[in-house]
Design goal:
365 residues; five-stranded antiparallel sheet; elongated
């Protein structure tokens, strides 16, 4: 991935939006997004409520005049600039007919953490298990859920993984929404030593004795569980190089100033619509954003009143003496961030924070 440079990502995106982008320009910008190529998912994965709430709150903050550090996720209570929802890539294990001692279902859960980069700091790893709507509400015996680390890696789909250390065991008397488990320590170990990532062993058992009627009902319940079970891993990471210090807050929307002369340096409105770039097929939200751009002249006589740096003033002064020295140019002087929710080619749903993507103020520099 290219090194972070303030404003460069926005410049590349403006080039893509305002002209006919070359494949090279598009590739460079995608690298800033952490992507190797344009994603082309066949369909969007379901987006969990927490991710939608985060991006909706962030989108509402500027219009409400609220300053917000987008690298702090108040909904989760941690710092992070990338949220990934990793899909389960495991498989069900074949089980015999359910006897008095057999389990309802067994499944290997596997999550690929290779998308997490070397400089990323893991701050959250949360396993979510959705058992489906009212799947076993009328079942007499309670269900019990056991979650273990897999003892060692198995030959994919051929050998049966063996459960190792048990780290979660709880009763599930009836459907109660998604169950969540803290896997931060486990994920950190997998991140440091990828060869240790042999997955998780999930088993749902039935507590208590059962008569013939309940046993028949159990068969139906277990079949429904296999169809409706959905597992995912929410991973939050922080790359300090891509997040400014917390003192740099997201600014509220700034109205476009009424320039006394249209030719002078000032901010111009520009809305970037991701559909125009053909990116609506993989970007879930927002549909676009007001990026804006800077344009206009920087005459020496007005340099000090055009939000200019001292260097721009001296450059304008030297230009008046020697015309071969270029004039100061109209550039962004204040930028603010945005967040994007998208899906990559590995079916990961990602919420990523990007600094310096919106032009708030312009000046001569």
């Amino acid at each position: 991935m290219l090194p972070f440079h303030p404003g460069l990502a926005l410049s590349l995106l403006l080039t893509l939006a305002l002209g006919q982008p070359s494949q090279c320009q598009e590739h460079v910008f995608l690298q800033f997004l952490g992507l190797d190529k344009v994603p082309s998912p066949p369909k969007f994965q379901p987006v969990p409520y927490i991710l939608r709430k985060i991006i909706q709150d962030q989108a509402a903050a500027p219009s409400a005049g609220v300053s917000e550090d987008l690298c702090y996720l108040k909904e989760l209570g941690v710092r992070g600039n990338v949220l990934r929802l990793l899909p389960d890539q495991g498989f069900f294990l074949n089980s015999k007919k359910h006897s008095q001692t057999s389990s309802c279902l067994q499944k290997l859960l596997y999550f690929n953490l290779s998308a997490v980069k070397e400089k990323d700091q893991l701050t959250i790893a949360q396993l979510g298990l959705d058992l489906g709507p009212s799947t076993y509400y009328d079942l007499g015996p309670e269900l019990e859920l056991a979650l273990s680390l897999v003892q060692k890696a198995s030959v994919w789909g051929k050998s049966i993984p063996k459960p190792g250390k048990l780290f979660a065991l709880q009763s599930v008397p009836w459907p109660q929404g998604a169950l969540r488990f803290n896997l931060l320590d486990v994920a950190k170990d997998w991140y440091i030593n990828p060869q240790k990532n042999a997955g998780l062993f999930l088993e749902i058992l039935v507590k208590g004795d059962r008569d013939v009627e309940v046993n028949f009902q159990l068969e139906d319940t277990c079949a429904k569980l296999r169809r409706s079970l959905h597992a995912s891993l929410l991973v939050v990471t922080l790359n300090p190089e891509q997040c400014h210090p917390s003192s740099r807050k997201r600014r509220a929307a700034i109205p476009v100033p009424k320039a006394s002369c249209k030719n002078l340096c000032h901010r111009h409105q520009l809305f970037i619509n991701f559909r125009d770039l053909g990116w609506h097929k993989w970007i879930i939200a927002p549909k676009g954003f007001m990026a804006n751009y800077c344009h206009g002249e920087c005459p020496f006589s007005l340099t000090t009143s055009l939000n200019s740096s001292n260097y721009a003033f001296m450059q304008a002064l030297m230009n008046a003496v020697d015309p071969e020295i270029p004039q100061a140019v109209c550039v962004p002087t204040k930028l603010s961030p945005i967040s994007m929710l998208y899906q990559d080619n590995d079916d990961n749903v990602i919420l990523r924070h990007y600094e310096d993507m919106v032009v708030d103020e312009c000046g001569c520099g």
